[in-house]
Amino acid sequence: MANIVEVILTYQIETAILALIGFILGLFISLIYWKGKIRKAKDQIKELENAIEGKEVDFKKIRVRAQELLIDKDKDMAVLRAQINENKEVLKNREKDIAALNTQIGQKEGSINELTLQLGLKNESIEVMKKEIAELKQMHRETMSRAEEAENKVAEINSSVEELMQALNAKESEATSLKARIRYMQDDFSSITGIGPKVSAVLRAAGINNFTRLATANIDKLNQILEKENPSLLRLTDPATWPEQARLASEEDWEALSALQESLKGKRRSQASTH
Description:
By secondary structure, this protein is mainly alpha-helical. The protein has helices at 2-186, 197-205, 211-215, 219-229, 233-236, 242-250, 254-274.
Protein backbone atom coordinates (compact mmCIF):
# COMPACT_ATOMS: atom_id res chain seq x y z
CA MET A 1 0.00 0.00 0.00
CA ALA A 2 2.79 2.35 0.84
CA ASN A 3 4.42 1.55 -2.47
CA ILE A 4 1.27 2.36 -4.36
CA VAL A 5 0.96 5.67 -2.58
CA GLU A 6 4.58 6.41 -3.29
CA VAL A 7 4.13 5.53 -6.93
CA ILE A 8 1.06 7.73 -7.15
CA LEU A 9 2.85 10.60 -5.48
CA THR A 10 5.83 10.14 -7.72
CA TYR A 11 3.55 10.15 -10.76
CA GLN A 12 1.75 13.26 -9.59
CA ILE A 13 5.04 15.02 -8.88
CA GLU A 14 6.37 14.12 -12.32
CA THR A 15 3.12 15.23 -13.87
CA ALA A 16 3.28 18.49 -11.98
CA ILE A 17 6.91 18.95 -12.99
CA LEU A 18 6.04 18.26 -16.65
CA ALA A 19 3.13 20.65 -16.45
CA LEU A 20 5.40 23.27 -14.90
CA ILE A 21 7.99 22.70 -17.61
CA GLY A 22 5.27 22.97 -20.28
CA PHE A 23 4.00 26.16 -18.69
CA ILE A 24 7.53 27.60 -18.58
CA LEU A 25 8.12 26.60 -22.23
CA GLY A 26 4.80 28.15 -23.26
CA LEU A 27 5.64 31.27 -21.33
CA PHE A 28 9.07 31.41 -22.98
CA ILE A 29 7.57 30.93 -26.45
CA SER A 30 4.96 33.59 -25.74
CA LEU A 31 7.70 35.91 -24.56
CA ILE A 32 9.66 35.38 -27.79
CA TYR A 33 6.49 35.92 -29.85
CA TRP A 34 5.57 39.13 -28.08
CA LYS A 35 9.14 40.41 -28.32
CA GLY A 36 8.89 40.09 -32.13
CA LYS A 37 5.54 41.82 -32.07
CA ILE A 38 6.92 44.60 -29.90
CA ARG A 39 9.93 45.00 -32.22
CA LYS A 40 7.65 45.28 -35.27
CA ALA A 41 5.45 47.71 -33.39
CA LYS A 42 8.49 49.83 -32.55
CA ASP A 43 9.58 49.83 -36.20
CA GLN A 44 6.10 50.83 -37.28
CA ILE A 45 6.06 53.56 -34.65
CA LYS A 46 9.39 54.90 -35.99
CA GLU A 47 8.03 54.86 -39.54
CA LEU A 48 4.93 56.67 -38.36
CA GLU A 49 7.05 59.21 -36.51
CA ASN A 50 9.15 59.80 -39.66
CA ALA A 51 6.00 60.10 -41.74
CA ILE A 52 4.53 62.50 -39.19
CA GLU A 53 7.71 64.60 -39.31
CA GLY A 54 7.49 64.72 -43.15
CA LYS A 55 3.83 65.62 -42.96
CA GLU A 56 4.61 68.36 -40.46
CA VAL A 57 7.16 69.80 -42.91
CA ASP A 58 4.55 69.60 -45.69
CA PHE A 59 1.97 71.20 -43.42
CA LYS A 60 4.39 74.02 -42.67
CA LYS A 61 4.95 74.58 -46.39
CA ILE A 62 1.22 74.44 -46.99
CA ARG A 63 0.64 76.97 -44.21
CA VAL A 64 3.27 79.31 -45.73
CA ARG A 65 1.76 78.89 -49.21
CA ALA A 66 -1.73 79.43 -47.81
CA GLN A 67 -0.59 82.62 -46.13
CA GLU A 68 0.99 83.80 -49.40
CA LEU A 69 -2.20 82.98 -51.28
CA LEU A 70 -4.25 84.83 -48.70
CA ILE A 71 -2.00 87.86 -49.12
CA ASP A 72 -2.34 87.63 -52.92
CA LYS A 73 -6.10 87.22 -52.58
CA ASP A 74 -6.25 90.31 -50.40
CA LYS A 75 -4.35 92.24 -53.05
CA ASP A 76 -6.61 90.86 -55.79
CA MET A 77 -9.67 91.75 -53.74
CA ALA A 78 -8.38 95.28 -53.33
CA VAL A 79 -7.84 95.52 -57.10
CA LEU A 80 -11.31 94.07 -57.73
CA ARG A 81 -12.88 96.55 -55.33
CA ALA A 82 -11.14 99.38 -57.17
CA GLN A 83 -12.36 97.98 -60.51
CA ILE A 84 -15.87 97.59 -59.13
CA ASN A 85 -15.85 101.23 -58.05
CA GLU A 86 -14.63 102.24 -61.50
CA ASN A 87 -17.31 100.09 -63.12
CA LYS A 88 -19.92 101.75 -60.95
CA GLU A 89 -18.79 105.12 -62.26
CA VAL A 90 -18.87 103.77 -65.80
CA LEU A 91 -22.39 102.40 -65.22
CA LYS A 92 -23.51 105.79 -63.98
CA ASN A 93 -22.13 107.40 -67.11
CA ARG A 94 -23.77 104.69 -69.21
CA GLU A 95 -27.10 105.38 -67.55
CA LYS A 96 -26.72 109.03 -68.45
CA ASP A 97 -25.87 108.04 -72.03
CA ILE A 98 -28.89 105.73 -72.16
CA ALA A 99 -31.13 108.53 -70.98
CA ALA A 100 -29.72 110.79 -73.69
CA LEU A 101 -30.21 108.02 -76.25
CA ASN A 102 -33.82 107.56 -75.17
CA THR A 103 -34.35 111.26 -75.76
CA GLN A 104 -32.77 110.96 -79.19
CA ILE A 105 -34.91 107.88 -79.92
CA GLY A 106 -38.02 109.88 -79.14
CA GLN A 107 -36.88 112.55 -81.55
CA LYS A 108 -36.03 109.93 -84.17
CA GLU A 109 -39.48 108.37 -83.82
CA GLY A 110 -40.99 111.72 -84.71
CA SER A 111 -38.69 111.91 -87.72
CA ILE A 112 -39.63 108.34 -88.67
CA ASN A 113 -43.30 109.26 -88.69
CA GLU A 114 -42.56 112.14 -91.01
CA LEU A 115 -40.44 109.87 -93.21
CA THR A 116 -43.28 107.33 -93.31
CA LEU A 117 -45.56 109.98 -94.74
CA GLN A 118 -42.91 110.96 -97.25
CA LEU A 119 -42.38 107.28 -98.09
CA GLY A 120 -46.03 106.95 -98.99
CA LEU A 121 -45.62 109.81 -101.43
CA LYS A 122 -42.42 108.25 -102.76
CA ASN A 123 -44.21 104.94 -103.34
CA GLU A 124 -46.67 106.73 -105.59
CA SER A 125 -43.75 108.27 -107.46
CA ILE A 126 -42.12 104.82 -107.68
CA GLU A 127 -45.21 103.38 -109.35
CA VAL A 128 -45.07 106.14 -111.93
CA MET A 129 -41.36 105.50 -112.42
CA LYS A 130 -41.99 101.76 -112.84
CA LYS A 131 -44.36 102.50 -115.69
CA GLU A 132 -41.78 104.80 -117.26
CA ILE A 133 -39.10 102.11 -116.81
CA ALA A 134 -41.34 99.56 -118.52
CA GLU A 135 -41.73 101.94 -121.45
CA LEU A 136 -37.96 102.54 -121.51
CA LYS A 137 -37.31 98.78 -121.50
CA GLN A 138 -39.61 98.39 -124.48
CA MET A 139 -37.75 101.17 -126.24
CA HIS A 140 -34.45 99.51 -125.27
CA ARG A 141 -35.56 96.20 -126.79
CA GLU A 142 -36.53 97.96 -129.99
CA THR A 143 -33.20 99.81 -129.99
CA MET A 144 -31.28 96.56 -129.43
CA SER A 145 -33.14 94.96 -132.31
CA ARG A 146 -32.16 97.86 -134.54
CA ALA A 147 -28.60 97.66 -133.21
CA GLU A 148 -28.43 93.96 -134.12
CA GLU A 149 -29.59 94.78 -137.63
CA ALA A 150 -26.96 97.53 -137.80
CA GLU A 151 -24.28 95.11 -136.54
CA ASN A 152 -25.23 92.63 -139.24
CA LYS A 153 -24.90 95.36 -141.84
CA VAL A 154 -21.56 96.41 -140.35
CA ALA A 155 -20.41 92.79 -140.51
CA GLU A 156 -21.37 92.67 -144.18
CA ILE A 157 -19.52 95.95 -144.78
CA ASN A 158 -16.46 94.63 -142.90
CA SER A 159 -16.52 91.50 -145.03
CA SER A 160 -16.63 93.65 -148.16
CA VAL A 161 -13.82 95.83 -146.80
CA GLU A 162 -11.71 92.74 -146.08
CA GLU A 163 -12.22 91.54 -149.63
CA LEU A 164 -11.26 94.98 -150.93
CA MET A 165 -8.19 95.03 -148.65
CA GLN A 166 -7.12 91.62 -149.93
CA ALA A 167 -7.52 92.84 -153.50
CA LEU A 168 -5.61 96.03 -152.61
CA ASN A 169 -2.80 94.01 -151.02
CA ALA A 170 -2.60 91.88 -154.14
CA LYS A 171 -2.38 95.02 -156.27
CA GLU A 172 0.27 96.49 -153.98
CA SER A 173 2.26 93.26 -154.26
CA GLU A 174 2.02 93.45 -158.03
CA ALA A 175 3.05 97.11 -157.93
CA THR A 176 6.03 96.29 -155.71
CA SER A 177 7.10 93.54 -158.07
CA LEU A 178 6.70 95.90 -161.02
CA LYS A 179 8.73 98.60 -159.26
CA ALA A 180 11.45 96.05 -158.56
CA ARG A 181 11.56 95.14 -162.22
CA ILE A 182 11.65 98.79 -163.22
CA ARG A 183 14.34 99.40 -160.63
CA TYR A 184 16.37 96.54 -162.01
CA MET A 185 16.08 98.02 -165.49
CA GLN A 186 17.06 101.48 -164.22
CA ASP A 187 20.13 100.05 -162.50
CA ASP A 188 21.48 99.05 -165.86
CA PHE A 189 24.83 100.87 -165.90
CA SER A 190 24.66 101.21 -169.66
CA SER A 191 22.60 104.36 -169.05
CA ILE A 192 25.70 105.94 -167.45
CA THR A 193 27.96 107.69 -169.96
CA GLY A 194 31.39 106.06 -169.98
CA ILE A 195 30.26 102.63 -168.73
CA GLY A 196 30.01 99.87 -171.28
CA PRO A 197 29.27 96.16 -170.84
CA LYS A 198 32.85 95.29 -169.89
CA VAL A 199 33.22 98.10 -167.31
CA SER A 200 29.75 97.27 -165.97
CA ALA A 201 30.82 93.67 -165.40
CA VAL A 202 33.99 94.84 -163.62
CA LEU A 203 31.99 97.12 -161.30
CA ARG A 204 29.44 94.41 -160.48
CA ALA A 205 32.26 91.97 -159.72
CA ALA A 206 33.62 94.57 -157.25
CA GLY A 207 30.23 94.75 -155.47
CA ILE A 208 28.97 97.96 -157.09
CA ASN A 209 25.78 96.64 -158.66
CA ASN A 210 23.29 99.51 -158.37
CA PHE A 211 23.07 103.29 -158.77
CA THR A 212 23.07 103.92 -155.00
CA ARG A 213 26.40 102.20 -154.44
CA LEU A 214 27.91 103.80 -157.50
CA ALA A 215 26.69 107.24 -156.33
CA THR A 216 28.50 106.82 -152.99
CA ALA A 217 31.65 105.27 -154.46
CA ASN A 218 34.96 107.14 -154.16
CA ILE A 219 36.49 108.13 -157.51
CA ASP A 220 39.94 106.94 -156.42
CA LYS A 221 38.43 103.58 -155.52
CA LEU A 222 36.80 103.37 -158.96
CA ASN A 223 40.17 104.11 -160.58
CA GLN A 224 41.79 101.38 -158.46
CA ILE A 225 39.10 98.86 -159.49
CA LEU A 226 39.59 99.60 -163.20
CA GLU A 227 43.37 99.64 -162.96
CA LYS A 228 43.40 96.36 -161.09
CA GLU A 229 41.22 94.73 -163.75
CA ASN A 230 42.97 96.27 -166.78
CA PRO A 231 45.04 99.49 -166.80
CA SER A 232 44.00 100.16 -170.40
CA LEU A 233 40.42 100.76 -169.21
CA LEU A 234 41.49 104.07 -167.66
CA ARG A 235 42.63 105.24 -171.09
CA LEU A 236 39.25 104.39 -172.59
CA THR A 237 36.98 105.93 -169.91
CA ASP A 238 37.00 108.37 -166.98
CA PRO A 239 34.97 107.53 -163.80
CA ALA A 240 35.06 111.12 -162.50
CA THR A 241 31.38 111.79 -163.34
CA TRP A 242 29.98 108.32 -162.65
CA PRO A 243 28.92 109.00 -159.01
CA GLU A 244 27.09 112.17 -160.05
CA GLN A 245 25.33 110.41 -162.94
CA ALA A 246 24.44 107.46 -160.66
CA ARG A 247 23.01 109.83 -158.04
CA LEU A 248 20.69 111.42 -160.62
CA ALA A 249 19.71 107.98 -161.91
CA SER A 250 18.94 106.71 -158.37
CA GLU A 251 16.77 109.81 -157.82
CA GLU A 252 15.10 109.10 -161.18
CA ASP A 253 15.95 112.62 -162.30
CA TRP A 254 16.33 111.60 -165.92
CA GLU A 255 16.13 115.13 -167.30
CA ALA A 256 19.06 116.30 -165.16
CA LEU A 257 20.98 113.15 -166.07
CA SER A 258 20.38 113.74 -169.76
CA ALA A 259 21.48 117.37 -169.42
CA LEU A 260 24.66 116.31 -167.61
CA GLN A 261 25.45 113.71 -170.25
CA GLU A 262 24.91 116.28 -173.03
CA SER A 263 27.31 118.66 -171.31
CA LEU A 264 29.87 115.86 -171.07
CA LYS A 265 29.51 115.15 -174.77
CA GLY A 266 29.98 118.87 -175.51
CA LYS A 267 33.17 118.94 -173.45
CA ARG A 268 34.54 115.92 -175.29
CA ARG A 269 33.77 117.57 -178.64
CA SER A 270 35.53 120.77 -177.63
CA GLN A 271 38.52 118.80 -176.38
CA ALA A 272 38.63 116.79 -179.63
CA SER A 273 38.49 119.94 -181.78
CA THR A 274 41.24 121.51 -179.71
CA HIS A 275 43.48 118.52 -180.30
